[in-house]
## 1
Amino acid sequence: MLLHIDSSADAPADSVTRRLTADFARAWRARHPAAEYRHRDLAATAVPPLTGAYTTLGRRVERAGPVPPAKVSALAENPAEAREWELTLPLVTELAAARTVLLGVPMYNFSVPAALKAWIDRVTFPGAFLHPDSGESLLADTRVVAVMARGGAYGPDTGQAARDFQTPYLRAWWGRLGVRPEHLHPVAAELTRVDVLPFLAGREAAAAASLDRARAALSALAAA
């Protein structure tokens, strides 16, 4: 299954990540016509932020040791905790079933959008992706394609790399869930605001080249 997640607040016409993830999804589905495909738009249908009932239930599950998602509801002690798990289980199940995860991640204030962070917080439920017997990650073989867009440039030769909290964050989080480093593919298009930010004037060619490289990388990943 391909799980396609967009998090940009922009409409497709104004969103680089939405256009790039759509291109990847079309190419992937053409190669896998019988495979399941799911699209989740976190801007259109927001994931509710966590409440105290979620964290209380999470701590109870942690104390009980690895608990399969199917058995978590039995540990809920009140309607609020049951509701939090009802909101969480479909997202956890969806992610666990995906063989490829396609993320559209614009850079907002040097990091990821709040809409994506809310999804990340909710699916990171204690033990949700651990095999109950072996303790191994159920996501070890999941392939993640993170399509990123940055208004400026944050590559290693730009002098702005230290302000990129987007790529390191995604690497750390997916790694913590057990996704193998070789299965995480961050692809970034930079200088995407060159048409509206005066201080980027004159860098149109670099912006176009960055977008072309991102498209080529995604095309290769979709074909793999």
## 2
Amino acid sequence: MDEPIRESGPHLADLLRDALTGDGPLYRQLADALRQAVDRGEIPLGTVLPPERALARALAVSRATVVAAYDRLKTDGWLESRQGSGTWVRTPDEGDAGSDAVATGRLFLSVGGGEQRSGPGEPADDAPADVVDLSVAAVTGSPIVNEVLASLTPEDIAPLTAHHGYVPQGLRALRDHVAQRFTDDGLPTGAEQVVVTTGAHQGISLVARQLLRPGDTVLVESPTFPGALDVFRRFGARPVPVPVDEHGVRVDLLEDLIVRSDPRLFYVSPHFHNPTGTVLPAERRAVIAELSRTRRLPVLEDLAMADVVLDDVDLPPAIAAYDPDAPIHTLGSTAKLFWAGMRVGWVRSPADTAARTLAVKTVADLGSPLVSQLLALRLLERREEVQAERRAELRPRRDHLAALLAEHLPEWSFTLPAGGLSLWCTLPRGNAEEFAELAGRHGVTVVPGPALSVDEGNRRALRLVFASPTADLDEGVRRLAQAWTGYSAASEHRPASRLLV
């Protein structure tokens, strides 16, 4: 990464301080804590660490302790020093873990609006034929989808077929509905600001196409939705990671990253972030909106998961609501709540750029299918009913998966999300890509953290989707536990100095 993240002493001290209470030399505890923070994705690869004296002052330890910890990690291959640039968290060499493990993770990247697998995601020759798939963050169609689809009459369809069918901006009734919902949620919006898209994936593409040129920088949360990374890279842009914590994206790093990397776009998922499930606090949203306005940095906020609410939680307004003059595009979708097969989403753009979004959509496909848009409108009119249905279906599955993990894989850690479709789990040791490959051989597919990361970070993280029936979750966790037993035993014999282990 050309323009690195630079960690401050006080923030890094906050990350590490609780880990410095064990047995053994303090410098070893500090080195282990740093390594674990990198593994969890809290310190992205390529980050410049604070000078030894600054970190020692923040931790209230001697400078010699920090020097010894840094030296140990340099010897083990985790850190490197660059003349005049300080101490960096190493980015892995291609051969450090073997190309197979890295390539396997990349093959989990999504294609289109839903996330699909191919190739190594299929069972190995010695794997069970009935693979349990915990990798796809999508739901089957709601029964209400079938009901609404069956209820459409010739009279409903006739006004559509009487038209030539090219409506690039989308059905007016659907745009009115979406605009009214934005307005009701605190973001005043006119129908002319809304463009209907063929899924959320196209929404990301429309914004990227009008803003990005080859070589441009895009700030992206890490981890993030892998389909967004696909889009940005397809346009030749260079994603730069912004780390997340338990509350979402770290806004304390944003201004420095903006100054250093001169980004053309910032992509962020503030509602039930995929994959961590976090809800970005209102004060952080306000910071993003202010930086967007003052720095004229376009922001694409992805609210595709916003409707999958499992617990009683007050969602703050969209980021764009905090500063109407900021260049913020807001993305929505029907895929995560209703059914991805409709392929209907939308982009709400600022008034002064909405015409440009429409122009890009017109070039892309002259408009999304009208019958799907009609179905989407009818379903959005019953949104609260479907949300109640999904909550009754998904919340027990989420809780069941959490209980299974606590019982069978108690070393794994996670935070129970209030919405979304997945748990973001942290392994106590090892490498998630290697483990995901082994899990596939045991007949269960999961997504390793590096497949969802800009910089192949989050190397001890896995995304487990809980959208499957409880019987599948039972069997999936049974197989994961079996795979973990074998993996843990094997990892005990591996050298601690190996970068990706």
